[in-house]
Specification:
280 residues
Length: 280
């Protein structure tokens, strides 16, 4: 139980990467709202502080249908599929081609689709629909799992005039994000810059605190069980050795010496348990 508690604390509270994957939020070191400016992307790619650049857009309420099932969900759109860092893909592959789409396991169940099925997505320019092949199934807590994923090439089949909304900028040295953001705000006053760590804190702070609370409960419960077990074992040992203790008392041993002797018999077990706990 203690191992589970510390594992949860390590993977969910101290290290947010796994939590971000499960939630399904793509966060970079610096995020910029540019209104789809392509020149800005090129300048960022040539900046010596920048490691890589991706783009993100969100289509909020899009209808997807399969046979007699219809769902309304949000679609995340990225330009560089290989630069997506927080996607928990369960089956298949990311939508590299313009006719492919990834659904969450929740939406795959709701639509009753599997890999290779063709779903129809409502066009953003007219009343028609556009077919897409389900190439992957992922998992997201974001938007209660009502999500899909496609490439920019794919979304332009729904809307040829589509432009990206947010530039995701990954730095060579993330520790310099604050000072780089300040400099860019001076160089590009028309754009809105956000630190990824600030967005992360506001997005998953509640979940992180809940996981920290669960970890603390696990640790407290484990300590209680260990202490209770030790007391019961000591009591059983005293009852079993009652005669020997009486003889020792008659020979002149004090109560304190007998208590210390009893505790010392359990010391090797405790020491081995501590060592194994540190190693594992």
């Amino acid at each position: 139980m203690l191992f589970i508690g510390f594992a949860l604390f390590q993977n969910w509270a101290l290290d947010n990467r796994m939590l971000l994957k499960v939630v399904g939020i793509e966060i970079s070191d610096i995020m910029v709202s540019t209104g789809g400016n392509e020149d800005f992307l090129e300048e960022m790619r040539n900046d010596p502080n920048v490691q890589s650049v991706n783009t993100k857009s969100l289509l909020k309420t899009i209808e997807i249908s399969y046979m007699d099932h219809t769902e309304t969900l949000g679609i995340d759109v990225y330009r560089d599929m290989d630069n997506i860092r927080n996607n928990y893909l369960l089956e298949g592959h990311l939508p590299y081609n313009g006719n492919e789409i990834v659904l969450t396991c929740v939406e795959a169940d709701n639509l009753n689709v599997t890999l290779g099925d063709i779903v129809n997505v409502k066009s953003m320019t007219d009343s028609g629909t556009v077919p897409y092949t389900v190439c992957g199934i992922d998992q997201k807590m974001n938007n209660t799992g009502k999500k899909a994923l496609m490439s920019e090439e794919g979304v332009k089949r729904l809307n040829p005039e589509h432009k990206y909304e947010t530039a995701l900028i990954f730095l060579n040295d993330p520790s310099k994000a604050k000072e780089i953001k300040k400099q860019w705000e001076k160089d590009y006053p028309d754009y809105t810059f956000s630190l990824g760590e600030d967005i992360m804190a506001s997005s998953i702070e509640t979940v992180t605190k809940a996981m920290e609370g669960i970890c603390v409960i696990f640790v407290i419960a484990t300590c209680f069980v260990v202490i209770l077990t030790q007391l019961l074992l000591t009591r059983a040992q005293v009852i079993r050795e009652r005669t020997d203790l009486g003889v020792s008392k008659a020979l002149g041993y004090t109560s304190g010496e007998l208590i210390r002797r009893t505790l010392m018999t359990n010391l090797p077990t405790i020491a081995i348990g501590i060592v194994l706990g540190i190693i594992l």
